[in-house]
Specification:
Pfam families: DUF7479. By secondary structure, the protein is an alpha+beta fold. Helices cover about 35% and strands about 35% of the residues.
């Protein structure tokens, strides 16, 4: 796995984040702590708009 810049899209918004990616297949790993923490907070903020 290598750190790489990834665009995350949600509700017509795009965010650039650095996440671990497989250099061979290109799949991105989203750590559980990020998915259940910061991403959940951003999701709630965007839905409140």
């Amino acid at each position: 796995m290598e750190q790489g810049k990834v665009q995350v899209f949600y509700l017509n918004s795009a965010f650039d984040v650095m996440l671990p990616r497989c250099p061979q297949c290109g799949l991105t790993m989203v750590p559980k702590s990020l998915a259940e923490g910061k991403m959940l907070e951003v999701e709630a903020l965007l839905e409140d708009k």
